[in-house]
Amino acid sequence: MKRIAVLLLLWSTFALGGADSLFKMIYHLGGVEMLRVDFEGGGSQSIYSRSGQEIAVGASVEVLPFLHWENTIAVSLGYVDAANGYAMFSRFPFESQIFLQLWILRVGGGISYHMAPSFSCTFSNCGTHTVEAPQMGTTAEVGLAFDWESPYGEKMKLYFAYKYLQMTYIYDNVPIDASGGSFIMGAFFDWW
Length: 192
Known about the structure:
The chain has 192 residues and is mainly beta. It has a single domain (2-190), classed as Porin, CATH 2.40.160. The chain is 7% helix and 69% strand. The protein has one helix spanning 2-15, and strands at 20-28, 33-38, 44-48, 52-64, 67-82, 85-102, 105-121, 127-130, 137-149, 155-166, 168-171, 174-177, 180-190. Strands 1, 4, 5, 6, 7, 8, 9, 10 and 13 form a nine-stranded antiparallel sheet that branches. The protein has a two-stranded antiparallel ribbon with strand order 2-3. The two termini are 33 Å apart.
């Protein structure tokens, strides 16, 4: 039922007149350690709740000249590669946020729902494990968005932000606090 509500909300944003399409490329840092891989030769590498790469698509509606309603759905991956396999934490975040845009400053917040979060790895005795995200999370974000136009006329926003997500996952019937911050670097592409 939650997935249907998410898709209806995303579709309703596009259905509104004047919606701009968005494509975001985001790199998250930080969060809570979710998985650690120890290497045979020594050392380790961790996957955090907010680390990895994210590609998002969605729509932004200008409610007022300084107020934007944005809905995005994304693929987000945290990944560790080793000589004998890999480990990955994947999820599909949906976010609905309201942003106040004052010149280059963007301040906003909203809700986040992570669909199908799961751990998977190719190491021995690992396999794929489903992680539950039973509740909606909340977000708060502050950032700088710089308008830029290419020589070919495409408009782009270069974006640098800090986001805090409050979220809890359930893994093997144990709650895991997946709340944490992330530094976001990315770009918005608006097509008119």
